[in-house]
Amino acid sequence: MDDLEARSPLIVTVDDSPDARLFIELSSHAADLTEAKDALGWVMRAGLDDPLAGVKRHLIGAAVVSYCRCFLHSKVRTPLGDYIDVPEGLSRTHETIRAFRNQTIAHSQSELTVTYPVGVVDAETMELQFVSAVTVASTLPDSIVNDFATLIGAVLDLLDDVLNPVRRRLEQVLRTAGPEALEAAAPRGIEKMAADFRPRSKRARYPMAHTLYWDR
């Protein structure tokens, strides 16, 4: 193996600019869509006897949250709908997923999840044993899951069409940068303990660092 083959790549960040911020926004949407795609992939591969069958509903919920997050108002990025139009043939599926998120996933309002108060009685004596609750939860049918996966794939393709020209412009910027500038642009990680975990933090549109939390 020669020196070129053994050399590890150097990861650097692009300087702040309108294109860099646009690339960050679009790539952030792509990351959310990929999360949704991966979750649905596990759902569609899970058979009846698969351990994942018991968590299909939760994986679908995660996919719905990740997908819809791209189209909701945010203080740190522009909604994806400002950059692309959902294909007309998939708009019904798009609206179904948004309604499912609003009524069932984000808020417990839909009749897809219903809780009944029940009494458990002895079958012979009919004496009451205890009172409990039974929750019946339904999720997306397989046919709609398949349509949802098709929708995510189509939206990712449209996003790539917007993202690729921005990527090429940024690549040109890096090709004209000197070695010293590239060395100075390496991303920075900040390590903190779990006791300092801050779920209410707000990221910048052009991040300068990221935080990693450790238990010990």
Automatic annotation (TrEMBL):
Q: What is this protein called?
A: Uncharacterized protein
Q: Which organism is it from?
A: Nocardioides guangzhouensis
